[in-house]
Design brief:
By secondary structure, the protein is α/β, with parallel strands linked by helices. 27% of the residues lie in helices and 28% in strands. It folds into 2 domains: 174 residues, Quinone Oxidoreductase, Chain A, domain 1, CATH 3.90.180.10; 132 residues, Rossmann fold. Strand 14, helix 9 and strand 15 form a beta-alpha-beta unit. Helix 4 crosses helix 5. The N and C termini lie close together (11 Å).
């Protein structure tokens, strides 16, 4: 089968790999669409410490079942992937907390080849059925929607919340839509990219703030019930705290590059809650429903559509800063 193999940092090889064996409880999927995640870029660039080489990257995928060695799944079914691997014999697995196991890993990062390929073999618990309303492209976007849903829900939303989002990358642009769809009254986003901010405005945010030169701290202070931080720096977490009203909630989903110095005394005085959002549990129901009902404008954030053959050159150009993209979708 044709696949893109990451052999070392920035070494992407389009090659033919043997079809992986199918064991009990596993399903072979013909990949149709696979989205490029921010963590994929980190793996390819050699900046994700968990990545093991060689590996086929990719986890935001949809396709059709080719072969099943698992009960309840039949060839021809249209599916999308829940890409977290976890040992079945653990208590967290039974509770659906697959993201909280010491054995947790994401498809295409450590031990299991991912979906930048014509076929991928996954465990049966990693499959979700597509609805009739979904096409393969929108189905492949369910995983980043799930990231956004969990971040928003960890903020313990109340109807009509004023929400500030730091970062208008592909997750941030989904997040602002998820927040609106799940009841936020006001949605504001900040970023340093004029193109991303323009897209955020087109997607219906109340305000998109360019912070390349200045962050309007005084104007935003004590204005938001929830702040969702996709940047994850000491500066943004402290700005989030300042932007919260009393009783506000901060959710950090951006991966911190280092330790954060959080002013606990100030947070205590405002009774602000700080949560972190890494991955998601086994429940994709809300994400699937939002996508199936057409509540989110997902194809609008896809800036590049390429084939497996075209993908290596584009991904390396993006990593090297020779091109810009918001969301890349690969057809296999």
């Amino acid at each position: 089968m044709k696949a893109i193999l990451l052999t070392a940092p920035k070494q992407l090889l389009l090659t033919d790999l043997p079809r992986p064996e199918l064991a009990g409880g596993q399903v072979r999927v013909r990949v149709r669409k696979v989205g490029v995640c921010g963590s994929d870029y980190s793996s390819i660039a050699g900046k994700l410490p968990f990545t093991r080489f060689p590996i086929v990257v990719g986890h935001e995928a949809s396709g059709e079942i080719l072969e099943s060695a698992a009960q309840g799944w039949q060839p021809g079914e249209r599916v999308l992937l829940h890409p977290i691997l976890c040992r079945r014999d653990e208590d967290v697995f039974a509770r659906g907390e697959v993201h909280h196991s010491d054995s947790t890993e994401v498809l295409g990062v450590v031990s299991r080849n991912g979906a930048y390929a014509e076929e991928v073999v996954v465990e049966d618990y990693m499959l979700r059925r597509m609805t009739d309303a979904m096409d393969f492209e929108t189905a492949a976007m369910v995983e980043p929607v799930a990231v956004s849903v969990r971040a928003f829900q960890l903020g313990k939303p109340r109807g009509g919340d004023r929400v500030l989002v730091f970062g208008a990358g592909n997750i941030g642009l989904i997040l602002v839509q998820v927040a609106r769809a799940l009841g936020a009254g006001q949605v504001v986003v900040t970023d340093i990219s004029p193109e991303r901010l323009a897209l955020a405005r087109a997607l219906g945010v109340d305000e998109a703030i360019d912070v390349r030169e200045d962050y309007p701290a005084a104007r935003l202070e004590k204005q938001f019930d929830m702040v969702i931080d996709g940047v994850g720096t000491n500066d943004t977490v402290n700005k989030a705290l300042a932007a919260c009203v009393r009783g506000g909630r901060i959710v950090v989903y951006g991966v911190p590059a280092g330790d954060i110095n959080y002013p606990l005394k100030v947070a205590f005085s405002k009774d602000v809650t700080l949560a972190t959002s890494r991955l998601y549990n086994s429940n994709f129901d809300v994400a699937i429903r939002l996508v199936a009902e057409g509540r989110l404008r997902l194809t609008g954030i896809i800036t590049h559509r390429v084939t497996l053959d075209q993908a290596p050159a584009l991904l390396l150009n993006l990593i090297d800063g020779k091109e810009k993209a918001i969301k890349v979708m690969i057809s296999t």
